[in-house]
Specification:
The chain is of the alpha+beta class. The protein is 36% helix and 31% strand. The protein has helices spanning 11-14, 66-79, 109-121, 153-165, 260-270, 282-335, 337-379, 410-422; strands at residues 19-25, 29-38, 48-58, 85-90, 95-103, 130-139, 143-152, 169-175, 196-202, 205-212, 215-222, 235-240, 248-249, 384-395, 398-407, 426-435, 454-463. The strands form 4 sheets. The chain has a 5-stranded mixed beta sheet. It has a 5-stranded mixed beta sheet with strand order 11-10-9-12-13, with no helix packed on it. A hairpin with a 2-residue loop joins strand 9 (196-202) and strand 10. It starts with 10 loop residues before the first helix and ends with a strand.
């Protein structure tokens, strides 16, 4: 059984961040896609995305030029894009990725990088001029395989300034085109369990991604989009500038295929854990996330306040309703006071009659029982003596009676039982016990002729 993981909660969505803009930026143009997230508030994996707006804005010169930013900002306003946050990437050529083997006894990877930086880069550049991030790919007993990503600090700052100048805040700054595969995992018409080969051609080159069970297992550059790689029988999907016939062309969420990277960047903003690298400086990111946290706090306070107001309103409505019902009941009681008085008199009379009937029934029952006992005494044969008659209980049909006695002749006892059975007022006559006196039973014979008395106990029901 899989337990629910709190890390699957989408706190950005709870904070009200429902849309993001993915910016695919080069020196010549900006492709923008605004995506809106639906569902997946408490389970990110079931999130769905809809395209709100998308456009391409061609530019001349570096993205830091104010005229280029003005053109993009005007297009955002013209399109009616209201998102406050954006995600972008540093294109190939402005980043460098290096894998290194770091001893497992190293306590600080940052210190190890400072000590081994020149050996890793092998180019005349200072670490202070770069921003870097790292990810531990594999841990072993003696060493760890760590992937370092470096980007020029000036390039990162240039993109951040550009995004701010178009009145957006940068949540994530990725590298190269690694986020181009993100839309593939949320496409409804693609089986994620099926092994796939995904060929994407961007402005920085063409890359082939091998995907198994919804995970990228490998990626490597190819020389040309027209090159058909040996995909081992996998299904081949083309995207970006590579989508020019021959195989299935990927259109993320119905967009033209050249917007694949921009759509993937927008998804990355909602699900930052899809890739490990984010080159936005930690101080900048902390300020943005603090704003998101404040929005989440305000929304929670408003939600709790609204819930309490709803409870108070429900209580007030219930109190008004109950007061109205009580007033109606009082009016009804006042209107029927005379009827209640008459009803009370009738109830008292009814109880009195019931008591009289009960007394009559009791007297009748006692009279019937006296007659039955007289008849039993009359039927006792000569030579039979009774020493105890007990009314043991009652039932619907009559009184339960137990008769105990003795005789010097067992035949006399049998005759007495036959006489009882013939009496119409008696039924269920049976001998409970007969024979010599039981242990502890003290019987003194009246007649001296009886040396050893036979005792008996008979039970019967006397009809009323």
């Amino acid at each position: 059984m899989t337990l629910w993981d709190p890390r699957q909660i989408n706190f950005q969505r709870l904070a009200g961040v429902k849309s993001l803009v993915g910016l695919d930026i080069t020196d010549q143009r900006v492709r923008a896609v605004e995506l809106e997230i639906r569902g997946g508030t408490f389970n990110k994996s079931v999130s769905r995305f809809d395209v709100r707006k998308f456009f391409t804005c061609n530019m001349a010169g570096d993205v830091s030029y104010s005229s280029s930013a003005d053109a993009v900002r005007d297009e955002l306003k013209r399109q009616g894009i209201t998102s406050r946050y954006a995600v972008s990437t540093i294109q190939t050529g402005n980043t460098r990725t290096i894998r290194a083997e770091v001893p497992s006894d190293v306590t600080s990877i940052d210190e190890w990088l400072h000590d081994n930086f020149e050996k890793l880069m092998r180019i005349p550049i200072r670490l202070a001029e770069l921003l870097y991030r790292y990810e531990i790919l594999q841990s072993r007993e003696s060493s760890d395989i760590v992937e370092f990503v470096f980007a020029r600090r000036t390039e990162v700052e240039s993109i951040i300034r550009f995004v701010r100048s178009i009145e957006l805040e940068l949540l994530v700054l990725s590298i190269d085109a690694v986020d181009c595969v993100n839309p593939l995992f949320f496409a409804r018409d693609i089986d994620r369990a099926e092994p796939l080969s995904f060929l994407f051609r961007g402005d920085g080159g063409t890359t082939l991604y091998s995907i198994e069970n919804g995970t990228v297992v490998s990626s490597y550059p190819v020389l040309s989009a027209e090159l058909q790689p040996d995909d081992g029988g996998r299904k081949l999907i083309l995207a970006g500038a590579a989508g020019q016939g021959g195989s299935e062309v990927f259109s993320p969420f119905g967009l033209p295929t050249e917007y694949t990277l921009a759509a993937g960047l927008a998804i990355r903003g909602f699900l930052p854990e899809m890739q490990a690298v984010n080159l936005v400086p930690q101080q900048e990111l902390a300020i943005i996330m603090e704003c998101v946290s404040k929005r989440l706090f305000y929304r929670l306070v408003l939600a709790c306040g609204g819930f309490l107001l709803a409870l108070l309103l429900a209580q007030s409505i219930l109190a008004i309703y109950m007061d109205g019902r009580r007033d109606l009941a009082e009016d009804s009681l006042l209107a029927s006071s005379s009827s209640r008085s008459d009803l009370s008199v009738l109830e008292k009379q009814n109880r009195a009659v019931k008591n009289e009937l009960a007394m009559l029934e009791s007297d009748t029952a006692r009279s019937n029982l006296a007659i039955v006992l007289h008849d039993i005494a009359r039927m006792v044969p000569e030579g039979v003596w009774l020493y105890k008659i007990t009314v043991t209980g009652t039932e619907n049909s009559g009184d339960l009676i137990s008769i105990s006695g003795y005789s010097g002749d067992g035949r006399k006892i049998a005759e007495f039982v036959r006489l009882l059975e013939r009496e119409s007022r008696l039924r269920n006559v049976r001998i409970v016990r007969s024979g010599l006196p039981a242990y502890g039973e003290n019987v003194t014979a009246i007649s001296r002729k009886i040396s050893t008395p036979f005792t008996f106990t008979v039970s019967l029901t006397a009809r009323r």
